[in-house]
Amino acid sequence: MTVRVLVVDDQAVVRAGFRAILDAAEGIEVVGEAGGGPEAVTVAAHLRPDVVLMDVRMPAGDGVTATRAILDDPAATGTKVLVVSTFDLDEHVFDALRAGAGGFVLKDIEPERLVEAIRLVHAGEALLAPSITRRLIGEFVRLGPTASDHDGGSAPARDTAPGLSARERDVVAQVARGLSNAEIAAALVVAESTVKTHVSSVLTKWDLRDRVQLVVRAHELGLVGGDP
What we know:
Residues 157-222 form the HTH luxR-type domain. 49% of the residues lie in helices and 12% in strands. It has helices at 12-23, 37-47, 63-72, 91-98, 111-122, 130-143, 166-176, 181-188, 192-205, 211-221; strands at 3-8, 28-34, 51-55, 80-85, 103-106. The protein has a five-stranded parallel sheet, with helices on both faces. Strand 4, helix 4 (91-98) and strand 5 form a beta-alpha-beta unit. Helix 3 (63-72) packs parallel to helix 4, helix 7 crosses helix 10 (211-221) and helix 8 (181-188) crosses helix 9 (192-205). The radius of gyration is 17 Å and the shape is globular.
């Protein structure tokens, strides 16, 4: 399956760089570009890309508003957003994740890591590396309501994990540390398909959109695994 990507950045040279990297990758096709938020929303509605690589700081309309508009479109159920920032503690990144983005990368990311990031986000895995997960969650807590509030959901009590089995709690704890499905499978000595099933089950039980929201909810509830 080819992952169709829309590249959004206000700098043409950056868009060209990302396009060159992604066009050279097997199974990835850049289907369009946009230089600002409003244009990104229009182009995304027309092309229906699988993944939008979204800059968050753009003079011609910010990426946060564009991310929310793209993901709020009922017809864009299969579209994922991967936000891009120059700084890993950019407040705009936190806002984009609240808006439903599936993760973020830094603009100086290595080419192979960018390709991997696109594939991970397309597969529904939140791109929150362990080295930054705790800082991100700290900012979510400091800044207020979680991403689930944008979906009209209500946060559960902090001292409960409603409806989860013991194994689902184990998986959630590892997701909250920023581990991929493969890494969780290795840590818990189970099949990767089993991890995927548990993650999907938890998302359904808690009415969450994706793993980013799951990470935030897990930290709210204190369901965070210790360091390996």
